[in-house]
């Protein structure tokens, strides 16, 4: 069965437009969900802690960086680390359009570690 999971963010004014996601369970059983979020201010990765008792996600932090600019997906590798893919290489809107029209294979992968 499919059930809705409540998302508890620090601010309800924040836009939440999820795209790619990945989960990570540590040795204590804590589950973190890493979610690509497309917002007007730029792409970012939101990190949540899953509470199985209340079926809810509690926001832990937001990760932004100039290298996280055209996010497509994320793969958690630890409680504070992940790989993320950018589906475009160019950052200029005009160049991104040309890149898409020509189907240029210029995407990339970046690694984040908060240690």
Question: What characteristics describe this protein?
Answer:
three-stranded antiparallel β-sheet, 115 residues, mainly beta, five-stranded mixed β-sheet
Helix/strand layout:
Elements: E1 6-8, E2 18-25, E3 31-39, E4 42-51, E5 56-63, E6 71-78, E7 81-86, H1 93-101, E8 108-113
Parallel strand pairs: 1-5
Antiparallel strand pairs: 2-3, 3-4, 4-5, 6-7, 7-8
Account of the protein in words:
The protein is globular, with a radius of gyration of 15 Å. The strands form two sheets. Strands 1-5-4-3-2 form a five-stranded mixed sheet, with no helix packed on it. A hairpin with a 2-residue loop joins β3 and β4. The mean pLDDT is 90. By secondary structure, the chain is mainly β. The chain contains one helix and eight strands; from the N terminus they run βββββββαβ.
């Amino acid at each position: 069965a499919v059930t809705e999971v409540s998302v508890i963010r620090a601010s309800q004014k924040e836009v939440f437009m999820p795209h790619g996601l990945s989960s990570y369970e540590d040795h204590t059983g804590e589950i973190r969900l890493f979610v690509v979020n497309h917002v007007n201010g730029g792409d970012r990765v939101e990190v949540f802690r899953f509470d199985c008792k209340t079926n809810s996600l509690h926001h832990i932090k937001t990760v932004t960086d100039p290298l996280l600019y055209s996010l497509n997906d994320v793969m958690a590798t630890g409680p504070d680390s992940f790989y993320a893919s950018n589906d475009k290489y160019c950052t200029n809107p005009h160049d991104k359009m040309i890149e898409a029209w020509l189907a240029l294979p210029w995407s990339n992968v970046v690694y984040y570690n908060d240690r």
